[in-house]
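agent> call fold_tool(seq_1)
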Amino acid sequence: MPLLDTPFAQLDLIRQPEQQNEPLQAFDAADEYMLNYLAAQQPPASMRVLVLNDSFGALAASLLGKVDVSSSGDSYLGFLGLEKNLQRNGRAFDAIRPIPASEPLVGPFDRVLIRVPKTLALLEEQLIRLHGQLAPGAEVIAAAMVKHLPRAAGDLLERYIGPVQASLAVKKARLLIATPEAKAPDLSPYPSTYRLDEPAIELRNHANVFCRDGLDIGTRAFLAHLPKNLGGARVADLGCGNGVLAIVSALDNPQAHYTLVDESFMAVQSAAENWRAVLGDREVIVRADDGLAGQAPQSLDVVLCNPPFHQQQVVGDFLAWRMFQQAREALVVGGALYIVGNRHLGYHSKLARLFRGVEQVAATPKFVILKARK
């Protein structure tokens, strides 16, 4: 893999989660463009720089020791990437305090470097939170590959920060440079809410939650076929999102014990709030993690999962396959993984390579619900 080579540093970077023969880099031309732009300003070491949505730490790792850098984002895997890439390049991880997107920012910042996220609601929430956190003379610089840069990103910068200047494209990447101007604070439209009819519950969804404005059709198909009569089973909702699968399951299984895991800090925040709203002080574990990587082997009886089929803009089944492997490791012998997936993804054959028995629980024209027993 090529090195990220900028005036700040030359770094050997890896993506997260790691996979053999990784075809993709842990950085792109948008990272290089933003770092080169900042380097041309000859920033002093005292400059406070906030990095937002740094996929695997390319920006923060480059800037460490050159400026006073903070990093915030909604991806546990992103922070794991930052930690591993700092170690890989002989740098101390504790020199940067990662700030989950669910936590407030503490400025003032002289520069804000933003990788434009796939979910523009996350960008909007982050820009709203920058109000009052920018130093005099600050700049807010957003970057993306041109093919992933919607016009709405510039509109949001203009609305919440100030006038925007678009750069020329370099290596198919572009910068949007916003000059802050005095604006009244905006009330965030997040979290948003929606209601289920059966069971009759309301769910809160912070800005980066998948299907924030309504229940996705895969989960809707899954809810009617969640396992019942679980007794005191230990159940994990893997990739929990707003927690809807675990919450509905918990209502039907009052003695079961639940763990909710997601790599999105905003999803975990939403799931915890929704659990409390629906189930009060019933015991639960809710955590941000790399799937079930932190789960003890053979410590679960049931895993519920609506697996993702993309990581940021990259589409594929690598994450789902890894989640299936993690579930198998965490389940006791005789335990079961229940999933919902699009028919065309062929999860049945993939699960059959890991589990001793795979059966179809139900199907719709678009989705299948599968049970895989260890």
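agent> call fold_tool(seq_2)
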Amino acid sequence: MPRIPAVPPARAGRAGRLAYRVLRRRFGAVPEPFAVERHHRGLFWASLVAEIAWERAATRLPASVRELAVYRTATVVGCSWCVDFGAMLQRLSGLDVERLTRIDEYASSPSFSAPERLALAYADAVTAQPMTVTDEQVAALRAEFGDAGLVELTRMIAVENMRARSNHALGVTDQGFAAACAVGQRPSRDGSSIA
């Protein structure tokens, strides 16, 4: 249970209820970070618009590279909600989610391609406290993905750091998205699975 309770639909306001309905239709449940953030209406809308913009703009990298780097960031920060939601998004995108169980061994696992390993190591370096990004690492990423690809990778890792750290601090935990998706069900508003 989050440290700040989610705003229920009855208290979300007319526009909030509409947003909840759209989110529920798309994901099967209202993602709890949005329902918690609804306490601050301005940030709720800013986050919703930003998420849509990032999703539409992030098109330079292969989806597997981008999504693995974001997922890795969530695991390093320790955000169970982000890990849960990220696994669902990867499954819905047709990506291989079985290899997510080997994410900690990415450097030596044959489950990950060389470009994916570069991106995962970069996610670790950007997320480390203090950051451990090197000039050599950036040069290798530029050679692999180009300037626009490197900017996209950096931004999406930074965005996931923001999401994961915020969720972790507010006590937002996994909501059952990955498990529900695995069995063809959708999570309910309270996180339990419904058909």
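agent> summarizing second result for user.
The CA atoms of residues 59 and 159 lie 15 Å apart. The two ends are 23 Å apart (CA to CA).
agent> awaiting next instruction.
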